[in-house]
Design brief:
16 helices; mainly alpha; 0% strand; Na+/H+ antiporter like fold
Length: 321
């Protein structure tokens, strides 16, 4: 494996490193770093930072062009906000513990990813601008859908957690929409500085996601170490959820006659879920269920590994044309 390949796979390598650090816990790192990150509200600041960085990379002209395929946008949104919650609900019914069930419900209701799905859509030969449009709209819609869907889904498991709809929506708006608008407003003034950077702002977003994964593993470490059998079941369930989304959406795209270049953004944005929102929801409303956080982290890791395979397959088909 050469240096160039290592550089391209830095995010997967980073996930392996933060996972090893969190589970190994050298010099009681987890005991100190985890509570510190929670104390400074790193999950909230990090979520806002990710959307500021997304706004900095937003090309309004490209987004307007992407709006022409509004049917594709709607299809991806249906997968995110209808198909995923239904599949998560069904799988949560067979979960062996409430923690795993809650984690599946959280994954089911959060919006699509910001960074990885956009990158994968472009790498597979699709429209990154179309993927970005889906991501923006999804993260705006989730402000209104998450409180209602999450309260209903968790209520099916005899959990009477009161989610104040208005305050939850306002918090999500403050952490998602306002930072996104701020990033868009700063894009022009910061254009020379951004052009001089040796990397794109999305690299910082992915670095922040590594921090979220570390936080999630710190909080869920006790559950992982003490309940290894549940971790295996949780992994099987998140894989079942993700692969079900993959199969159903791919069959739908083929049935609708979506060809190369017109399906990749719908596919990847419809099957991927965002980790920052999931961690924020778990730590804010379900902090006593450590396995729920483990489920969220496992889903994120598994979707990156599984979808990297599909990126390679689709990219090969695109180059063969």
């Amino acid at each position: 494996m050469n240096f160039r390949h290592l550089r391209e796979q830095w995010f997967l390598i980073g996930m392996a490193l933060v996972t090893a650090l969190a589970l190994w816990n050298p010099a009681h790192l987890v005991d100190h770093a985890g509570p510190f990150l929670q104390r400074i509200h790193a999950q909230e600041w990090g979520l806002a930072l990710i959307f500021i960085l997304s706004g900095l990379e937003l090309h309004v002209g490209h987004i307007l062009d992407a709006l022409r395929d509004w049917r594709g946008v709607c299809l991806s949104m249906l997968a995110t906000f209808l198909l995923a919650p239904l599949l998560a609900w069904g799988l949560s019914r067979v979960a062996p513990s409430q923690g795993i069930a809650i984690g599946l419900c959280i994954i089911g209701v959060v919006s699509t990813t910001q960074a990885s799905g956009i990158v994968m859509s472009g790498a597979a030969g699709g429209s990154a601008a179309h993927a970005l449009l889906i991501s923006i709209l999804s993260n705006m819609v989730c402000i209104f859908t998450i409180p209602a869907q999450l309260q209903w889904l968790t209520g099916q498991h005899a959990l009477h957690v009161e989610l104040p709809w208005l305050s939850t929506s306002l918090k999500l708006g403050a952490l998602i929409v306002l930072p996104l608008l701020a990033g868009m407003a700063l894009r022009q003034p910061l254009a020379p500085t951004l052009a001089a950077l040796p990397f794109r702002p999305s690299v910082l977003s992915r670095g922040m996601i590594l921090v979220f994964i570390f936080m999630g593993l710190c909080a869920g470490r006790a559950s992982i170490m003490d309940k290894g059998n549940q971790v295996v079941v949780a992994l099987a369930l998140v894989l079942a959820l993700h692969l079900s989304l993959v199969i159903i959406l791919w069959i739908t795209l083929r049935a609708l006659g979506r060809g190369q270049g017109r399906r990749e953004s719908i596919f990847f944005m419809g099957i991927q879920k965002t980790l920052p929102q999931a961690i924020w929801l778990q730590t804010t409303y379900f902090s006593s269920y450590g396995m729920a956080l483990v489920v969220c982290v496992l889903y994120h890791i598994s979707q990156l590994v599984v979808d990297s395979y599909f990126v390679g397959r689709l990219a090969k088909k695109q180059s063969a044309v």
